[in-house]
Design a protein that fits this description.
614 residues, alpha+beta, Hypothetical Protein Ta0175, Chain: A, domain 2, Dna-directed Rna Polymerase Ii 140kd Polypeptide, Chain: B, Domain 6, OB fold (Dihydrolipoamide Acetyltransferase, E2P), 5 domains, six-stranded mixed beta barrel, five-stranded mixed β-sheet, 34 strands, 19% helix
């Protein structure tokens, strides 16, 4: 028997080469090709924006040069040595070399998500081995832009870093230095923003101290009278009176003289009593003769900001005398319900369509109150539970009174050791008179802070003896008290608070409208209903879901169970199905009546069987 020849491996060993996703050919030695291309890129013969990725498993090489790739710089490592040697480093410090020089020399190269799969990156120079291909410029740049501005992220659990990132974007500071001249839809400006005592390299590089969005508060970690249970915060009312956390809110309202298809047009003017929908004299009290409000006027909800009249919706019929008086409609711009403030500025201009446009900026003061949200830079968020006068708050032997008291139970389960380290650094910064470095992996550590505290006669762990403000007695436990950076977030209770007793209903379901802006009801859902059923409070269920919602009285035919109606011409009730006049009024939810109508639209005849109440 002769042996069959083995199939040639040459085809299998060939690597498919793709450029920007398009197959351009095959190469017999993929590793040599990739090495040659990378060397050409490092010697500036190939554009530095080119990235090469090789998959040994699928025998494919991907060369990417297209736009839209996120690329990150790394230091090139060859044979266990970084290309950024001592000589290059010293030239860089002297300013003889720039970043562009390093890229062209092949010291720095940018990798995209694909090529990173083939890279083995060392975090620090001392970690480099012969297997490593690249070195991080700095260990902290493994984090994103927002996280890099937060101190000690490596000491916190991942979900808390995510929360801290999203809350840093919600913090209130000075969003723009020309805020007085801008007409933004909504903007907040903090009165006394401060630079944090514990900063990071990234924070300094971006010069964020000029765009600060928070304040350094004296924070004690303790329980206090139950007002900071859970994530509640006890705030020093006297500190609030001195301007802590105080913010001004700007909101812009605008209206335009619209042009209608028939050639008719809105008019910005002071509405007169003969206008349809005239609101009385009170709402127009602050308007000038041209229908626009005066700056610095005090305004409350429902007061008119810009008077405006519109043409009638439908063409008027000619009267007996052949004269038609055009009835104008009232369509003024007024302040939304539940809002108040002062008129900051008014701008009269033209819209892109050439119509007259008026913008009114309303200014209102937002002083911290119970329910407002605050957070540290470590995802430790909470709402104000109580505002206490300074004389009733605990104090240290030096007379230091905390601005904020947070609950100790918030620390261990959230694993935010960075919060404590930030606080300890804040205390060391105030004593040492310097800004501390909280950059991830490379910043100051607890040993540095403990040394400063100990040298200055403080407890090395930041704890102090406090005295009760009400009794004057010494509190028997040592309490951690320190300055730490807190942000005020734009979740303000004054912008969210909403109640309703009665109000508008939806046209289709006749149920209350939804949302604060539409003066809507508060949703009483299935789970709330289940609670009441569990308590056996059946009359409350009826009141919430029927009496206070969409109760209606409908006629039901006693003969066939169809919904009937009242014939006003004949003066009697009729059933549309069987013509019977035996129709009884029944109290039902209008949503149920709507369901019955929709079932009938599917050619199904639902019968409502009536029985006498037992």
């Amino acid at each position: 028997m002769t042996k069959k020849p083995k199939p040639s491996k040459s085809k299998k060993e060939k690597y498919a080469v793709y450029v920007n996703g398009n197959l351009v050919g095959f190469h017999k030695n993929g590793e040599a090709l990739v090495a040659k291309l990378k060397e050409k890129r490092r010697t500036n013969q190939l554009n530095y924006e080119t990235n090469i990725y090789m998959s040994k498993r699928t025998h494919e090489i991907y060369i990417n040069t297209d736009r839209g790739r996120v690329r990150k710089p790394y230091i090139v490592v060859e044979e266990g040595r970084s290309r950024l040697g001592q000589e290059i480093h010293s030239k860089l410090k002297k300013g003889e070399l720039t970043w562009e020089h390093l890229v062209k020399m092949g010291v720095i190269e940018y990798l995209d998500a694909d090529e990173e799969e083939n890279a083995y990156v060392a975090m620090n120079p001392e970690d480099i081995t012969d297997e490593h291909t690249h070195l991080e410029l700095d260990p902290s740049i493994i984090f994103g832009v927002t996280t890099s501005a937060l101190p000690y992220p490596e000491h916190n659990s991942a979900p808390r870093i995510t929360m801290a990132c999203s809350m840093a974007k919600q913090s209130l500071g000075v969003y723009s230095t020309n805020f007085a001249k801008r007409f933004d839809t909504r903007g907040y400006v903090m009165f006394y923003p401060q630079q944090p005592l514990v900063s990071t390299d990234f924070y300094k590089a971006l010069d964020l101290k000029n765009r600060a969005a928070g304040q350094n508060l004296i924070v004690a970690i303790a329980t206090h009278e139950g007002y900071n249970m859970g994530d509640g915060l006890v705030i020093n009312r006297s500190a609030v009176d001195r301007g802590m956390g105080r913010v001004v809110m700007f909101k812009t309202y605008q209206t335009e003289e619209r042009l209608y298809p028939g050639g008719q047009k809105d008019k910005i003017e002071l509405p007169t009593p003969d206008v349809v929908g005239y609101r009385g004299d009170e709402p127009y009290v602050n308007l000038d003769a041209d229908g626009v409000i005066f700056p610095e006027s005090d305004v409350e909800s429902r007061l008119v900001l810009v008077g405006k009249t519109s043409p009638p919706r439908f063409i008027e019929e000619v009267s007996v005398f052949g004269v038609v008086e055009e009835k104008k409609r009232e369509s003024s711009l007024s302040l939304k319900s539940g809002e108040k403030g002062k008129i900051d500025s008014v701008m009269v201009t033209e819209s892109p369509n050439g119509n007259r446009l008026v913008k009114v900026k309303v200014r209102s003061m937002k002083i911290p109150e119970v329910g407002d949200k605050m957070a540290s830079r470590h995802g430790q968020k909470g709402v104000i539970g109580s505002l206490l006068s300074q004389e009733n708050m605990p104090f240290t032997k030096d007379g230091i009174v905390p601005d904020l008291i947070m609950n100790p139970h918030a620390i261990p389960s959230r694993m935010t050791a960075g919060h404590l380290l930030d606080a300890l650094g804040g205390k060391a910064a105030t004593i040492g008179g310097m800004i501390m470095d909280g950059t991830a992996f490379t910043g100051n550590n607890e040993t540095d802070y403990m040394k400063i505290l100990k040298e200055n006669g403080f407890d090395e762990y930041g704890e102090e003896v406090l005295y009760d403000g009400i009794t004057g007695k010494r509190i028997r436990a040592k309490i951690f008290i320190s300055p730490i950076y807190y942000q005020k977030l734009h979740h303000l209770v004054s912008n969210k608070m909403h109640v309703r007793s009665r109000g508008p209903v939806q046209l289709l379901t006749l149920q209350p409208t939804e949302g604060r802006a539409r003066e809507g009801g508060l949703r009483f859902g299935e789970m709330e209903r289940d609670c009441l059923i569990g308590y056996g409070a059946s009359m409350v269920v009826r009141e919430r879901l029927l009496e206070e919602s969409d109760k209606t009285v409908q006629l039901v035919c006693e003969n066939c169970g169809m919904l009937g109606f009242h014939n006003h011409i004949k003066g009697k009730t009729l059933c549309p199905a069987c013509g019977s006049d035996m129709n009884s009024p029944v109290e039902i939810s209008y949503a149920f009546k709507l369901l019955v109508d929709e079932i009938m639209s599917l050619y199904i005849f639902p019968r409502l069987v009536l029985k006498d109440k037992a």
